[in-house]
Write a structure and sequence with these properties.
Helix content: over 70%
Organism: Ilyobacter polytropus (strain ATCC 51220 / DSM 2926 / LMG 16218 / CuHBu1)
Order of helices and strands: HHHHHHHHH
Largest sheet: none
Strand content: under 5%
Distance between the termini: 29 Å
Protein name: 4Fe-4S ferredoxin-type domain-containing protein
Number of helices: 9
Number of strands: 0
Keywords: Membrane, Transmembrane, Transmembrane helix
Radius of gyration: 16 Å
Amino acid sequence: MFSKQLIKSSKKKKNFYENYTWIIFLLMWILPIFDIRFGILGLVSMSMAVILSIFSKGKPHCAYFCPRGGGLQKILTRFSMGYKTPKFITNKITRYGFTLLLTVKVVSGIVKSQNIYQLGSAMYMGFVATSILAITMGILMKPRVYCGELCHAGNIAGLINQIKTKNK
């Protein structure tokens, strides 16, 4: 009885967040055009994925709060062709290699930035590039295939959870 209510409650929450996170995804595209400092929203989103995974079970940011994931789900569901994901994308070497590459790129952008405008620009360019990849993959395969395979914030959150599970 209690578990059925919990599942029902979780589904309502998920639907609520999916119905609104796509708006944040669009704002993350649009706002930096007017003020590049809004590019930092991408860094905030990535950080939230890691922080939430440290203090909770699973990857709640990915499941409920991620603007890109919600945006891809909401917008691409109608357009997705549903082709099978190629094995080279699901390969752990590709997944963690891409995660390492993007993490180095983010850290490099943070270190090289001399002011908030440069930081916003670096984060926005990374957001746009990875979003174009995510949208392309979502159209060809499933809407959130990027999230499940290549998203570096999600992969880092997953690694944190694996470490937490092994240490229990």
